[in-house]
Q: What sequence folds into this?
């Protein structure tokens, strides 16, 4: 006790609060940590915090223990190359995008992109071509694109000559696309095809078997690793390997944490081992039984493809996701992702022992206290199939800006993203011109994301002088 300053930072880390934790990391306060990592953490504290000694090396060294572990993980996952990352999926997505798209080029990005990809566009002066997605008005969720939808996107984008496509699979809520069909379409596009980067932060690397060129994993979201441990997997010849290593050099620390590198290796190896498969199966079995029980009690759950993501359709209960989250939080149930019409619980690889006892009871209470007539359908964002910011993202973001109310923002260019977090998906991107329907939709979003969207928006300041506008 005495060795800790009496700050909340240490108190929160030291004292478990007895909550039912249904949030990430997926190891659930260590219960589901990969066994090799767990044993490492039992060693004398700090003894494992090694620098890039010659025998140890680092992610960009051709030789050494890290290189060997990366090669072993590539083989386990069916990739040709694997790089470990210590700045989450965020850092590796950025490195991958910078490697695929030179400055001034265009890339196709889904509207539900993670904000790290937007930041990569700024860093690399890449123009994002944002493609719209199907929308579920009942739950207010973006859905994965169908092959027919993606075909329309590719046709619309053809005259703009994008150099790469990013897909997200599965989504935060565990919704999966027909990835082999999507990748095949992109690889056939225009005859020679385009490279595909799949953000599998919430997935397991299956995008490789679907043919993706580059795949990014976050080992704390779907594996038994610590936060910030991540992997980039690569195959084929549709990208420049040297360019990829160069952008990894630009974006990763020069002192990668040995603990996080070991965490990535341990989580990847455990996920493919018999013990890891059995652990997942046990968790999935419990998740399926819980799902059945909740459905038997009349709870609407979103149909998804990841059984360890339980998505309560709160809108159908007449409750906003954020409202449900706040109510449950006050009663010691901590969900992962509140959204306007849904609340996602991450059950993790070793769900808490009290899950089956506490969650149904808490949800029954929630429904009794806050439930009512279903919320009206959510309006889809009024966006074209394909949109590009009118002003370069980084220029808009760095421009002198002013804050105006949303009605006054009509016709102006956004200077900052509007990005509720989580999920970290921007609703507005710097450089986009805000039209009337968009301003009205964003105004409506304010009510749906309480406290997350201000009543003003930053727009690029008008320049003094004639003929200039912002
Ligand atoms: C779809 C998606 N991609 C990437 C990331 C970033 O992952 P990390 O937190 O490991 O950097 C997230 C984080 O929530 C995400 O949801």
A:
């Amino acid at each position: 006790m005495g060795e800790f300053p009496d700050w909340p930072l240490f108190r929160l880390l030291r004292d478990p609060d007895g909550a039912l934790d249904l949030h990430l990391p997926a190891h659930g306060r260590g219960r589901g940590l990969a066994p090799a990592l767990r044993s490492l953490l039992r060693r004398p504290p700090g003894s494992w915090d090694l620098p890039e000694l010659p025998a140890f090396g680092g992610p960009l060294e051709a030789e050494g223990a890290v290189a060997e572990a990366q090669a072993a993980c590539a083989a386990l996952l069916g990739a040709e190359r694997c790089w470990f990352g210590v700045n989450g999926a965020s850092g590796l997505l950025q490195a991958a995008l910078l490697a695929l798209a030179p400055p001034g080029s265009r890339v196709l990005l889904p509207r539900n992109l993670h904000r790290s990809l937007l930041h990569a566009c700024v860093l690399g002066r890449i123009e994002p071509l944002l493609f719209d997605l199907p929308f579920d008005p009942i739950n207010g969720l973006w859905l994965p694109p169908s092959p027919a939808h993606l075909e329309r996107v590719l046709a619309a984008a053809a005259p703009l000559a994008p150099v790469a496509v990013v897909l997200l699979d599965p989504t935060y809520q565990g919704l999966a696309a027909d990835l082999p069909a999507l990748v095949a379409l992109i690889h056939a596009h225009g005859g020679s095809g385009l490279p595909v980067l799949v953000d599998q932060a919430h997935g397991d690397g299956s995008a490789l078997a679907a043919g993706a060129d580059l795949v990014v994993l976050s080992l704390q979201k779907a594996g038994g690793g610590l936060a910030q441990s991540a992997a980039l997997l690569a195959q084929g010849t549709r990208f420049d390997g040297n360019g990829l290593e160069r952008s990894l050099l630009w974006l990763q620390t020069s002192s990668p944490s040995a603990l996080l590198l070991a965490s990535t290796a341990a989580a990847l190896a455990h996920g493919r081992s018999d013990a890891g498969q059995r652990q997942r199966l046990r968790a999935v079995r419990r998740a399926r039984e819980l799902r059945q029980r909740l459905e038997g009690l009349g709870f609407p759950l979103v149909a998804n493809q990841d059984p360890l993501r339980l998505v309560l359709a709160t809108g159908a209960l007449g409750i906003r996701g954020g409202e449900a989250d706040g109510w449950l939080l006050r009663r010691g149930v901590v969900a992962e992702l509140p959204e306007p019409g849904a609340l996602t619980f991450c059950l993790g690889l070793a769900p808490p022992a009290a899950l089956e006892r506490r969650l149904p009871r808490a949800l029954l209470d929630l429904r009794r206290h806050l439930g009512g007539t279903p919320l009206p359908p959510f309006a889809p964002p009024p966006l074209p199939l394909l949109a590009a910011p009118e002003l370069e993202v980084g220029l808009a973001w760095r421009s002198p800006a002013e804050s105006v109310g949303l009605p006054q923002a009509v016709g102006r260019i956004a200077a900052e993203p509007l990005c509720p977090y989580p999920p970290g998906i921007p609703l507005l991107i710097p450089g986009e011109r805000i039209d009337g329907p968009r301003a009205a939709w964003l105004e409506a979003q304010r009510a749906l994301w309480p406290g997350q969207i201000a009543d003003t928006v930053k727009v690029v300041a008008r320049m003094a002088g004639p003929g200039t506008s912002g």
Summary: The chain has a mean pLDDT of 95. The radius of gyration is 23 Å.
